[in-house]
């Protein structure tokens, strides 16, 4: 294993994921599928990493990431780092697409994809600020590393670690129930067929 190896895990599906609600800095519990996805991640890690103790494990402080880490890391307690919390999405948080459209019709219509929503959320953090805090995290990070975090956080980390700029991240998916391995600037998705979401 490369000393620079980094493994990224997104939290399992939550109630709000299933309902299409943006969570951001808020939280909702893992669904039964989400719990199975975390168990799937544990199996993937056990297959590829015989000794997790060689890795420094980090997790977001948000409960959905903490719950996933507790399952996926098989009892290894991660370092909680607030810089790994999900992007704050301001007034979008807790709203379904229909609710966003009803409350912010012009702004919601102008957002053509998820990144438009993240960047333009009223009162939100924005991708540039998120990138700055994640750069600071990477500067302090011990390697090799396992990180349990969130959709947007992991997309931006993948960009920083593989040399992709923000526009290039629009084409990436952020699946649940898998492990993304990054070493020497290249990424590989470690997955099994069961319990994987797009």
From TrEMBL:
Q: Mind naming one GO cellular-component term on file for this protein?
A: cytoplasm
Q: Looking at the keywords, is ATP-binding present?
A: no
Q: Which PROSITE patterns does the protein's record reference? A: PG_MUTASE
Active site annotation, chain numbering: 11 (tele-phosphohistidine intermediate), 86 (proton donor/acceptor)
- A Pfam family for this UniProt protein? His_Phos_1
State if Isomerase is listed as a keyword: yes
Write out the residues that bind substrate. 10-17, 64
Q: What is this protein called?
A: Putative phosphoglycerate mutase
Recite the lineage of the species. Bacteria, Pseudomonadati, Pseudomonadota, Alphaproteobacteria, Rhodobacterales
């Amino acid at each position: 294993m490369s000393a620079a190896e980094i493994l990224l895990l997104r939290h399992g599906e939550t109630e709000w994921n299933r309902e299409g609600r943006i969570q951001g800095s808020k939280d909702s519990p893992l669904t039964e599928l989400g719990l199975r996805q975390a168990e799937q991640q544990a199996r993937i890690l056990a297959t590829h990493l015989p000794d997790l103790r060689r890795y420094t494990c980090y997790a977001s402080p948000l409960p959905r990431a903490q719950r996933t880490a507790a399952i996926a890391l098989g009892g290894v307690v991660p370092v909680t780092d607030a810089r790994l919390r999900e992007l704050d999405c301001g007034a979008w948080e807790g709203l379904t697409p229909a609710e966003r459209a009803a409350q912010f019709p012009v702004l919601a219509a102008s957002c053509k994809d998820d990144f438009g929503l993240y960047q333009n959320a009223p009162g939100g953090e924005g991708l540039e600020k998120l990138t700055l805090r994640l750069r600071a995290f990477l500067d302090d990070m011990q390697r090799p590393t396992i990180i349990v975090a969130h959709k947007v956080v992991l997309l931006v980390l993948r960009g920083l670690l593989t040399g992709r700029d923000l526009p290039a991240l629009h084409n990436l998916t952020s699946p649940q129930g898998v492990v993304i391995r990054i070493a020497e600037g290249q990424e590989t998705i470690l997955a099994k067929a069961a319990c994987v979401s797009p």
